[in-house]
Amino acid sequence: MTTQQLVEQIHKKQSFLCIGLDVDLNKIPKHLLEEEDPIFAFNKAIIDATHHLCVAYKPNTAFYEAYGIKGWEALEKTINYLNEEHPEIYTIADAKRGDIGNTSTMYAKAFFEDLGFDSVTIAPYMGKDSVEPFLAFKDKHTILLALTSNRGAFDFQTKHVDGVELYKQVLETSKSWENSENLMYVVGATKAEYLADIRKIIPKAFLLVPGVGAQGGNLQEVCKYGITDTVGLLINSSRGIIYASQDVNFASAAAQKAEELQKQMQAELTR
Ligand SMILES: O=C(O)c1cc(=O)[nH]c(=O)n1[C@@H]1O[C@H](COP(=O)(O)O)[C@@H](O)[C@H]1O
């Protein structure tokens, strides 16, 4: 999917919500455990109930890899279901990959070609030649970790190197990489006050902003400093939506939480 198509969907749905499909078998409703594929059954119910309220879904691969071959099959079924039933929805493989060039190429093939995701999250630590193999794919996005939502973000990302914070160097340097127009960046919602500075370096790029809901980030604060004339934001909530209820009504409870966020986003878009 192109960035322009994503922006069109945001305006059409009046939403820049991304729902995180981080499926933990200990947290899903008990009756689903009797299904042949409980993870996919859960995802399908969540997608069926929420697809009109969001523009993107983000399965974090850890939650699938943890269940071995069955987990990977559930991930494959989920992306196939999205691509077949809702091709207008943007998909993010949250895999946080990145390695030497030939290995990155294989990761890129896995997520873009084999699974058919629109984008994948990538760690920038190994530099240009670890990221450019992902950027080479047409109409696919590489979402680079810039300033993450967790406390550990202060261990390295905000440290000064040659007088400039490392996350700012990641933003600035990545702009010179080949096909950098295919880059998006992760900035945690818990770091909203940094967004004004971030927008000075990347005024237009799309940001994936996780951390509203369970991690306490504030949607209005993120919009205040991060929104652009083409929106430029995908705000993710995972646990805050998908585990709204562990009862048989879990999907409609998730839809209710998603709608609360969508209404707040609509208000920001019409501001
Ligand atoms: O890349 C991410 O999506 C990510 C980056 C970050 O800085 N913080 C962060 O929480 N995430 C992911 O976003 C999701 C947040 O989930 P909730 O806290 O349950 O909404 C998880 O899948 C995290 O792995």
From TrEMBL:
Top-level taxon: Bacteria
Molecular function GO terms recorded: orotidine-5'-phosphate decarboxylase activity
Catalytic residues of the enzyme: K96
Keyword terms of this UniProt record: Decarboxylase, Lyase, Pyrimidine biosynthesis
Orotidine 5'-phosphate decarboxylase domain span: 16-254
Pathway: Pyrimidine metabolism; UMP biosynthesis via de novo pathway; UMP from orotate: step 2/2
UniProt cross-references to InterPro entries, sorted A to Z: Aldolase_TIM, OMPdecase_type-2, OMPdeCOase_dom, RibuloseP-bd_barrel
A biological process term (GO) from this entry: 'de novo' UMP biosynthetic process
Leading EC class: lyase
SMART domains linked to this entry: OMPdecase (SM00934)
Catalysis: reaction(s): orotidine 5'-phosphate + H(+) = UMP + CO2
This enzyme's EC code(s): 4.1.1.23
SUPFAM superfamilies assigned: Ribulose-phoshate binding barrel
Family: Belongs to the OMP decarboxylase family. Type 2 subfamily.
PANTHER family xrefs: OROTIDINE 5'-PHOSPHATE DECARBOXYLASE (PTHR43375)
Record-given protein name: Orotidine 5'-phosphate decarboxylase
